[in-house]
Amino acid sequence: MYQTIKTQHMSRGFVKEEDQxxxxxxxxxxxxxxxxxxxxxxxxxxxxxxxxxELLEEKKNIENTNDNERxxxxxxxxxxxxxxxxxxxxxxxxxxxxxxxxxxxxxANLTLKLNNSLQPQKFKxxxxxxxxxxxxxxxxxxxxxxxxxxxxxxxxxxxQLNSGKRVFE
Length: 169
Description:
Blueprint: E1 38-40, H1 42-60, H2 67-90, E2 91-93, E3 109-112, E4 121-126, E5 137-139, H3 143-148, E6 157-161, E7 164-168
Parallel strand pairs: 1-2, 4-5
Antiparallel strand pairs: 3-4, 6-7
Helix pairs in contact: 1-2
């Protein structure tokens, strides 16, 4: 009634060390929570498509002296490419110019004062892959943006942090 199936397993201890392929460490994409919409600006989509072309070019130009190094390099590029394609496929392009500019929304350019400071700061609300605080681009999923959404010029929003409150105007 029961059939015995014999299988052979080779212990990794019997494999030559040089045959053990290293798995590449793949840098993750910026965090996008499960179920969150992957909004991108038109410029953000251009950025993602440019990154795709660069990875395809990198894949074409992989030249390593031994097969193992080439396979590792190809695996790394393929893994990065697959993560990127998943992000591109889930992207929902939102043109900020197509919406009213009377309140804080995705794609908006903001001028914010923090805690009554005299020096305002400028930011643009963008997708997670576009976010770069040094360029004044903040993710639509950041806590700051979440408290600012739908606010109008002159409104104040308070962000509660462990270190105290931050009031934005």
